[in-house]
């Protein structure tokens, strides 16, 4: 684990911003982010900006620049994405010698509401537009959503590094084998689907609401995959509740983008993979001091008992018919 974040000081943050021609006022506010380090930085004669310091060794420079280019492409198409600021030399990725970083305009807003049908429909409209742009060309350097990187490698890492209590290892390995087989079945029922450039992490925490419109943030996980990856994250709760929320989203989405209902076979498969990937992500970041502070429950037998129980529930859900899509 790279612990370089321990070396990042307030002076480093201010110096990095000022090296790009801004005059700071010395005020720094740490924002909610674990994978990277993100700060609001005050400026002397302008609104604050946001400085994002990328976790070392996670993405290549080419992958980060491609994320930035996608953000600007969306913004150029009047999709409300917070894109990085660009220097007079046309650059958006900068280097301190230890860290790579980018600067963004600050955009405030409140959380979008899952129970608000009107908001979900409007979010669906912008997501449909985002996917129309995303389908126009392909990523070259961003990752592709796959079973290998979302469940097979993550579960292998958890077992090989002995994260589970020893008495649960055999049961977990057997359960993962069952889940992988079921996920393969979900993909088989969905059939061959187009894959497009996605936001990749389109949950309500990455959608701000301001002036009766959404603001989309954090494309750090943008990737290639099926469109439903950006839709299912808006769906949770029991089946009738999810079906209603899906209809709200689709009322806006279908105004701008087609959607193949067969993709709905993947909803619970994608949720299952994300659950395993999330546990592996926490394990891989555990040496970063920010993680034990933020997730103290992770390194406990109770967490793994509940994790396995949740995955068994997913095994049952993957056997149910897909959510209905109204005509």
Tell me what the structure shows.
Helix content is 42%, strand content 13%. It has 327 residues and is of the alpha+beta class. The chain folds into 2 domains: 4-106, 2-Layer Sandwich (Phosphorylase Kinase, domain 1); 117-317, Transferase(Phosphotransferase) domain 1 (Transferase(Phosphotransferase), domain 1, Orthogonal Bundle). Helix 3 (117-134) crosses helix 7 (239-253), helix 4 (147-160) runs antiparallel to helix 5 and helix 8 runs antiparallel to helix 10 (301-317). The longest helix has 22 residues, at 169-190.
| Number of helical segments with 4 or more residues | 10
Report the sheet with the most strands, covering strand number, pairing sense and barrel closure.
5 strands, antiparallel
* DSSP helix fraction: 40-55%
- What is the name of the CATH superfamily of the largest domain? Transferase(Phosphotransferase) domain 1
Report the β-strand fraction as a percent range.
Answer: 5-15%
Major β-sheet strand ordering? 1-2-3-5-4
What is the gyration radius calculated from CA atoms? 21 Å
CATH-derived architecture of the largest domain:
Orthogonal Bundle
Mean pLDDT score, rounded?
Answer: 95
The domain count comes to 2
**At the third CATH level, what is the topology name of the largest domain?**
Transferase(Phosphotransferase), domain 1
